[in-house]
Fold this sequence. Notes:
It is built from six helices and eight strands. It has helices at 56-63, 87-90, 129-139, 169-174, 177-182, 204-212; strands at 12-16, 32-36, 48-51, 70-75, 97-103, 123-125, 144-148, 186-189. An eight-stranded parallel beta sheet has the order 6-5-4-3-2-1-7-8, sandwiched between helices. It is globular, with a radius of gyration of 16 Å.
Amino acid sequence: MKWGQVTEHHPRVAIVASGPSARGLRLPEGVTILAVNGAIDWLDRADYWFTLDPSEANWSRMHHQRPGVLYVAAVPDNFGTRAAETVVMQRPALDGVRYLHRIAGDGYGSLRCKPGLCEDTGGVHTGNSAYGALGLAFHFGARRIALFGVDASPDPRIEGGLPGGLHHLPELFSSTLSQLRAAGVMVVNGSPNSRVEAFPRMTPAAAAKWLEEPPC
C-alpha cells in the first residue's frame, strides 16, 4: 500500500473529540477543523478526519466519506496484510484515505503508547486518537491548537457508546509540552473539567474565541 506524508500547512487547528463537553460546539470560520473518530458523525463541518484506531466503526467512516473532508489514518506497518492483528486491519487500504505510519512504543502494556510527538511527517505516535490528532496538527505547523471534547472521562460519547480506558491521557499529553514549547506552538483545552491538565483549560466558547486571536 502507498504511505502518505503531511505536506499541508494550517496555522489554527481545532481538534474535536467526542467528550460531552463538546456538545453544541460552534467554531469560527477560518479555523481548520480536525474531527477525531466519531466526532465526524455529528460535527456540522470538518476539514480533516483522523484515527489511530482502524476499528469496524472507523472503517465504515472511511468507507463512507463526507465530501470535502480529507481522511487520515495512522496504522501499523503490517496494515492490509494477513499479519495484521485484527480482521479489519487485514482489509485492503481504502481509496481516499491518507495512511501514515502508526509509531508504537512500550507504554501502558497492550496500548503500546509512545510519548511525545513524532518529528517525521509520515508518522504519528500512538496511544489515543485525540493525542495522535495533536501530532497531526503539529505536522501542519499550527501555531494555535485548541482541543475540544478531550474530557478523558468515562462519560458517554456524543455519538453514543462509552470510551475505553483514558487514564493515561494526562501523561500522554504532558509528554508533548517540551516539543510544543520549542516549536512555539500554543495549545489550550476547551474542556474546563478535563482530566488533561497539560494545557490551560477553558470553556469551549472561550477556546473557540482564543483560536481567532493573533499569536503573541
